[in-house]
């Protein structure tokens, strides 16, 4: 059978379906859809496959979990807790861990998949951000991604609280404090959520409904919309040989991408299965049942909530008292401001960049991060801000481990949370410019050949050769960043939209954003005869040439 012949089994099945549904042309068109072949485009697959594993393992756990805060006396297999009073939720979580065949493995796979799901979303969003893949016509898909990330954090919070152990109860107590700190409506929201005074009798059952029905349903709908939009729109691709704004270079969905995705799903499942088997996570039996009167030392949330924990620990004890009412800024600001800054910034950035640059073109070629220094520097600054807050969420552990005063770590963290992002921005911007100059040197001077040549006057040089065709095309794919025209016309009059204060601000931002973004010049490139080189030793003339200048 030749490669052009359709296997009989597939042909027969396809004909049977097409005769009844008329889906032949639809399937043919979509099965041959081209996907670009680049490793970074598979990062989003990690989140998708983790979500599938979450649905499967979560369904298994719901068969035995009892979302009730009713009090029972434990008489299961874990002897240290026999006879202890606890909630039905905690008792059923222990039952799943010790008495249900495969229950502990499923619990741990579920927990590891949740961490991988959020981590996969984060790394996928960073890839989209740094390559500019959120630009027209993909702004709506970017907003869907931001909403998915927000819901994933809420899903993690509700799931983390369900076992009703001491560690999750500490997180639930913080949640209650944050809700109470909201002005005017905080008390009402707390009674609505908890069904009365904290901890009430309803919070576990309500979180359970939110965790297994409401948020998963929204996630499933948004993921479906995300994939449909991605499928309908032309896929972004990295610049390279033969790649333009009007085509996609890669392999078809069937069989190439389908086989690759299937293998990647199995790899993802194997990873979380191995973690669930050999890496213990959330051993709730060691923490004991939750009691509002108890607290544990060294309590840490899952990594994606660590930055909120850090902001709470760094915030000074500020509060405002007015007319008998207290506004606890020490809780309200760290709970809402960092998360609000990150999410609002992510949601608005595509539209802010479009307004600043005036770029209304469609973009199907992704940027290399170095080619948009300001965007990359902004992204690294946000990561630094997040990372410092995340690290200082464990300031007590840092102090105990390295024998540093807790007050010292807190004060240093308060300085770093402002200084760190600024330094990260400056350093990243300069690194991006340096990498662009390195690319320009490759185009103008070529790459090292490994051949050392001695010139007649005694100087030793390394001969450079033209870069490989695919590398040159990858580098030459850089496009200059668009900028609004701010200069006056022939009569000395600026454009109408830039005459007011907002317009003048836009012009300045646009000029700064597009600065140092000129296209790589190809004049004076390598002639292929080894004349362009970098000196490796000084000859009688004492002159050197550098490919960086």
From TrEMBL:
The entry's keywords = Cell membrane, Electron transport, Heme, Iron, Membrane, Metal-binding, Respiratory chain, Translocase, Transmembrane, Transmembrane helix, Transport
Q: Where is the Cytochrome b/b6 N-terminal region profile domain?
A: 13-239
Keyword Chaperone annotated:
no
Q: What start-end ranges are recorded for coiled-coil regions in this protein?
A: none
Q: What is its main location?
A: membrane
Q: Which reaction does it catalyse?
A: a quinol + 2 Fe(III)-[cytochrome c](out) = a quinone + 2 Fe(II)-[cytochrome c](out) + 2 H(+)(out)
Q: Name one GO molecular function term.
A: oxidoreductase activity
Q: Show the stretches that span the lipid bilayer.
A: 39-65, 109-130, 142-162, 207-232, 263-281, 331-352, 373-392, 412-432
Top-level EC class: translocase
Name this protein carries in UniProt? Cytochrome bc1 complex cytochrome b subunit
Subcellular locations according to the entry:
Cell membrane
Q: Does the keyword Zinc apply?
A: no
Cofactor(s) recorded for this entry are: heme
EC numbers, comma separated: 7.1.1.8
């Amino acid at each position: 059978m030749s490669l052009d012949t359709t296997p009989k089994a597939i042909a027969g099945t396809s004909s049977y379906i097409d005769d009844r549904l008329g889906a032949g042309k639809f399937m043919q068109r979509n099965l041959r859809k081209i996907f670009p072949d680049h490793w970074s485009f598979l990062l989003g697959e990690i989140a998708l496959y983790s979500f599938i594993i979450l649905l499967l393992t979560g369904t298994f756990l719901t068969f035995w979990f009892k979302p009730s805060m009713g009090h029972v006396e434990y008489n299961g297999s874990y002897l240290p807790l026999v006879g202890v009073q606890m909630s039905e939720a905690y008792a059923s979580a222990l039952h799943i861990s010790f008495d249900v065949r495969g229950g502990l493995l499923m619990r741990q796979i579920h927990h590891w998949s949740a961490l991988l799901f959020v981590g996969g979303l984060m790394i996928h969003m960073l890839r989209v951000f740094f390559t500019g893949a959120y630009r027209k016509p993909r702004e709506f898909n970017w907003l869907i991604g931001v909403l998915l990330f927000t819901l994933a954090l809420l899903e993690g919070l509700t799931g983390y609280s369900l076992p009703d152990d001491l560690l999750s109860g500490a997180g639930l107590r913080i949640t209650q404090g944050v809700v109470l700190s909201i002005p005017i409506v905080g008390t009402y929201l707390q009674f609505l959520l908890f069904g009365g005074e904290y901890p009430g009798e309803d919070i576990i059952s309500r979180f359970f409904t939110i965790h297994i029905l409401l948020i998963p349903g929204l996630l499933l709908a948004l993921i479906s919309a995300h994939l449909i939009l991605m499928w309908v729109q032309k896929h972004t691709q990295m610049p390279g040989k033969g790649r333009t704004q009007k085509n996609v270079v890669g392999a078809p969905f069937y069989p190439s991408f389908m086989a690759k995705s299937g293998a990647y799903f199995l790899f993802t499942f194997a990873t979380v299965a191995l973690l669930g088997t050999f890496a213990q996570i959330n051993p709730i039996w060691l923490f004991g049942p939750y009691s509002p009167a108890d607290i544990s030392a060294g309590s840490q949330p899952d990594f994606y909530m660590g930055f909120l924990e850090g902001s709470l620990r760094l915030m000074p004890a500020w509060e405002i008292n007015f007319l008998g009412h207290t506004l606890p800024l020490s809780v309200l600001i760290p709970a809402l401001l960092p998360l609000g800054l990150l999410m609002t910034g992510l949601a608005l950035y595509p539209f802010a960049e479009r307004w600043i640059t005036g770029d209304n073109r469609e973009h199907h070629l992704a940027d290399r991060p170095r080619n948009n220094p300001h965007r990359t520097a902004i992204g690294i600054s946000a990561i630094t801000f997040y990372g410092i807050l995340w690290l200082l969420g464990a300031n007590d552990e840092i102090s105990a481990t390295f024998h540093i005063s807790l007050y010292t770590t807190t004060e240093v963290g308060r300085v770093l949370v402002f200084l760190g992002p600024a330094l990260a921005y400056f350093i990243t911007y300069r690194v991006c410019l340096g990498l662009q100059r390195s690319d320009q040197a490759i185009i103008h001077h070529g790459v090292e050949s490994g051949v050392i040549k001695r010139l007649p006057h005694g100087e030793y040089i390394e001969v450079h050769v033209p870069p490989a065709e695919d590398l040159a095309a990858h580098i030459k794919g850089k496009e200059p960043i668009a900028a609004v025209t701010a200069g006056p016309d022939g009569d000395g009059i600026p454009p109408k939209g830039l005459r007011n204060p907002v317009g003048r601000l836009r012009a300045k931002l646009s000029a700064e954003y597009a600065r140092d973004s000129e296209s790589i010049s190809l004049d004076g490139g390598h002639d292929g005869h080894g004349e362009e080189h970098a000196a490796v030793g000084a000859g009688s003339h004492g002159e050197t040439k550098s490919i960086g200048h």
